[in-house]
Specification:
By secondary structure, this protein is of the alpha/beta class. It is 39% helix and 18% strand. The protein has twelve helices and 13 strands.
Length: 380
């Protein structure tokens, strides 16, 4: 396994360190660390070196990313070029966000239990309202008008719907034995007749090729209601970039908050990028209190992507055991530091309880500190 690691800014390096600790306890991997982030940008003026995207795709099975965003770079230029750059240049068209509560204690709904919150959201990651196209006319005048272009292509919709159905087939086998997995598409084709209409037609076409899955449609607003009222009715949800962005924060809340939510930016079969849903949280950076579970669970998704779904399940079980025992950081009501929470997961993987602030286990990981450019990286 060759894994590129880009810890990034704020709490990114702190939570990524814990994910690597967990990786060290589970598998042998070749790790290359890349320093791209605000510090590197402010020191060198470089966001990400030329050829870096090609190098990631060529030399690595997957990328583990921390978080990007730093108040010293107010326009977030480096974050756009690194993170959005990876998404675009590696063509990571599926933003996969599991919504799986691992313990009853983290579910904020009065009448739901953890077993009721277990579905996966597929958000289209490359087009829609995030095309960056549009214009503002008459800025500052009473006639000011802003037009945002929401771009939807048949190719874009078809591939995300297909990825969602393919995922649902595998998800159904392991997590819904004995019944057909459900794929639900959410749009607003009642008001967005162009893009929404295209989503509606293409979803039906793709669904016809997957008779082993149930398919249904809801308007995005009705789905928000359903996620709160009846999350157990959901298996796999597929939707566009904007609705996926909004609904996935609701999904993060359903499974216990931003500190717990993992995600992947995926192109099936290709080098993909895994990162916690949360951002760089500058208010927490350097204080050793950030929750590392979102990053650790993102590592689990990465491992499943490279064919080790068994290790993802072990990580999920270990995090669940920590939550059940209250071995958590303070955002979840516990007392552990970021490092102690990572140690607790490692201890649970080994079948034991956390020892508080134990030392990190020896990791069978060959860590290579890589430079900013592919050449320095190879020179090692
Ligand atoms: P972005 O725009 O990059 O998504 P943001 O500023 O909107 O970032 P986050 O950086 O994710 O949002 O943080 C929002 C708040 O959530 C933080 O101030 C922090 O209180 C909380 N938070 C985020 N991540 C964690 C974490 N891993 N552990 C504990 N609290 C967290």
């Amino acid at each position: 396994m060759r894994i590129a690691v880009v810890p990034g800014d704020g709490i990114g390096p702190e939570v990524t360190r814990e994910a690597l600790k967990v990786l060290g306890a589970l598998a042998t991997a070749e790790i290359s660390l890349f320093p791209w982030g605000a510090d590197h940008f402010l020191k060198t003026g470089e966001t990400i070196p030329a050829g870096a995207f090609e190098m990631l795709a060529r030399d690595f099975d997957a990328v583990l990313s921390g978080a990007f965003g730093d108040p010293r770079v107010p326009d977030g230029r480096h974050a756009d070029e690194i993170l959005l750059g990876m998404r675009r240049r590696l063509d990571l068209f599926a933003n996969v966000r599991p919504v799986r509560a691992l313990d009853d204690s983290v579910v904020p709904l009065r009448r739901a239990r953890a077993a009721d919150v277990d579905f996966v959201l597929f958000r289209e990651n490359t087009e829609g309202a995030y095309s960056g196209r549009g214009r503002v006319t008459g800025a500052g005048t009473s006639g000011e008008e802003a037009v945002e272009e929401d771009v939807t292509t048949r190719r874009g919709v078809e591939r995300i719907c297909r990825a969602a159905f393919e995922f649902a087939v595998a998800f159904g086998r392991t997590r819904r034995p004995g019944r057909r997995p459900r794929v639900l598409m959410a749009d607003k084709h009642n008001v967005q007749k162009g893009g929404g209409g295209l989503w509606h037609r293409v979803f039906r076409e793709v669904a016809a090729a997957f008779p082993s899955c149930e398919n249904r449609h809801m308007f995005a607003d009705a789905l928000a209601h359903e996620m709160v009222r009846s999350p157990a009715s959901l298996d796999v949800v597929v939707t566009n970039n904007l609705f996926g962005d909004v609904l996935s924060d609701l999904g993060a809340a359903l499974q216990g908050g931003l500190g717990l939510a993992p995600s992947g930016n995926v192109h099936p079969g290709r080098t993909s990028v895994f990162e916690p849903v949360h951002g760089s949280a500058p208010d927490l950076a350097g204080r050793g209190i950030a929750n590392p579970f979102g990053s650790i669970r993102s590592l689990g998704m990465l491992l499943a992507h490279v064919g080790r779904g068994d290790l993802e399940e072990r990580i999920e079980r270990a995090v669940a055991a920590c939550l059940a025992a209250g071995e958590t950081t303070r955002d979840l009501g516990g007392k552990l530091s970021t490092g102690e929470a990572g140690d607790a997961v490692v201890a649970r993987l080994a079948g034991g309880k956390a020892r508080g602030s134990g030392r990190a286990p020896r990791a069978p990981v060959r860590a290579r500190r890589a430079g900013a450019s592919p050449r320095r990286r190879r020179a090692g």
